Amino acid sequence: MTGGGTHRMLGVNVFDAAVDRMVAQYEQGHRIVVSTSGGKDSTCALEVCIIAATMTGRLPVEAVTRDEEIVYPGTFEYLDRIYHRPEVELHHLIAHQPIVNAFNRHSPYWWAFDPRLDAKEWVREPPDYAYEIPDINIEAMTTKSRFPVDEAHGQKLIAVIGLRVQESRGRRYGLHSSGGYMTKPHAKTGVYGCRPIYDWRDGDVWHAIRSQGWDYSSAYNVMHRAGIARSQMRTAPPSSAYAVDMLPFASQSWPQWWDKVCRRLPGMQSAAQYGKRVLQPNRRYGETWEQTFWRECVEKAPDWIAERARRAVKRILSSHAHHSTSPLPQIDPCYTCSGNNGSWKALANGLYLGDPFSMRMNMLPYVEPSFFWPDAPTKSWGGGSPG
């Protein structure tokens, strides 16, 4: 079994191993809910569960998706086909959750199916079978209130996700820390996590889709014809910083859809035109990174970014002073006190966009939705993670 990097050979292929994992969970009688986004990884996780549920007499497979409104064309259509499959019971959720627009420093959140707008201003409308939920954090997709379990008899609620450790080093560390493909129960929800395809590589994903004849989002076909490397094929919201390299392709491949997206989200057109430059501070010739930080992240930044930048630098400088009399490094991080954030360059890059989800500056709290929309129906992340 391969997973990239250091791994242990189990003498079985990754497909059979994934099916065996889910058969074991279904045979134990647990309630299993597959989280699906319409992407290739959750597609494989769902199909593996369908096979396992068929083998154990546990059809239909329960699945859940949270609509993000703006997805590459072909992805929603695929989710709609899933809903109409007799072997799947799909819960299509509308949470009106904030999603990051990495290309708008002044207002970095946009709300899926924003109720303040006329429906005609949305990029698309949700299907009539979708239903609304009040919670906006990602853990609210699979909860015991929505999917009750018989805890008195040891039944667990298990959320299946298509996580693969090949995608990032952080995911690999997370898998090792949990000791396997199953996670401990979430501290607040009590829901267990399950990652049946954690050891699949990109080639395994596409081999399974082709050899098994599985349905998938047609957006991937468009990406393939455009020459996008399979390791770069993603259907995540295009307003994410991770999607910036895909934007020129998206604007050319789906021009009518792209026009709607640009009207909906300020900054998208500039991101497609200038790429990663819109995500980075402008360091002037002969300038130190410390000077860049104060100019780009404080003096010229929107107020909310400047406030977070001041808080972050105060904490890091205080931490650094506890063990060193030297100034905070300009480029190479001081790992002793601040990890990857221990340099002026890291601070400038990490705080230029404010990092509202605290993905890079984890010493700062999430920026609550109410900060940008005081009258939002749900004003905070509710103790969960944004997702």
Quick overview:
With 387 residues, the protein is an alpha/beta fold.
Structure report:
This protein has 387 residues and is α/β, with parallel strands linked by helices. The protein has a domain at 14-202: Rossmann fold, CATH 3.40.50. The protein has helices spanning 14-27, 40-56, 75-83, 169-178, 202-212, 219-225, 247-253, 255-264, 268-274, 289-299, 303-321, 335-338, 344-351; strands at 31-35, 61-66, 88-94, 98-100, 109-111, 131-132, 157-160, 192-194. The strands form 2 sheets. Strands 6-3-2-1-7-8 form a 6-stranded parallel sheet, with helices on one face. The two termini are 30 Å apart.
Chart the SSEs and their pairings.
Blueprint (H helix, E strand, L loop, with lengths): L13 H14 L3 E5 L4 H17 L4 E6 L8 H9 L4 E7 L3 E3 L8 E3 L19 E2 L24 E4 L8 H10 L13 E3 L7 H11 L6 H7 L21 H7 L1 H10 L3 H7 L14 H11 L3 H19 L13 H4 L5 H8 L36
Parallel strand pairs: 1-2, 1-7, 2-3, 3-6, 7-8
Antiparallel strand pairs: 4-5
